[in-house]
Amino acid sequence: MRTYADMTFEEVMEAFADTVTRLAYLRMGNEQDAKDIFQNVFLKLYTQTMEFHDPQHVKPLLRWRMYRNAMSCMS
After folding, report:
1. Which spans are transmembrane here (predicted)?
2. Which of 25, 28, 49, 60 could disulfide-pair with 33, CB 3.0 to 4.6 Å?
3. What are 14-24's pLDDT values in tens digits?
4. How high is the pLDDT of residue 59?
């Protein structure tokens, strides 16, 4: 079975793009802010090490980063 640790950045982004976009839109209420948050979340992921020891940590990490970015945009 393939884990997220074996995935490329593009594959991780493709797997979670809808989730991050949807959550960002629900949090912000407009498409442009949701796109900005999406970009920030995946840019941060891209610039960090893409090795996940536990694949179950990927989705919560992305959700947490989305939430933090949304809170930053709102303040």
Report:
1. none
2. 28
3. 999 999 999 99
4. 86
Extract the tokens encoding 69: 């970015």
Question: Based on the number of CB atoms within 10 Å of its own CB, is 49 exposed (0-12), middle (13-18) or buried (19 or more)?
Answer: exposed
In 3-state terms, what secondary structure has residue 50? coil
Pairwise CA distance, residues 71 & 75, whole Å: 6
Instruction: Reduce the DSSP state of residue 74 to 3 states and report it.
Output: helix
At residue 57, the pLDDT reads: 79
Q: Where are the domains of the chain?
A: 4-46+54-74
pLDDT in tens, 35-66: 999 999 999 988 886 566 666 778 898 999 99
Q: 37 with 24: CB under 8 angstroms? A: yes
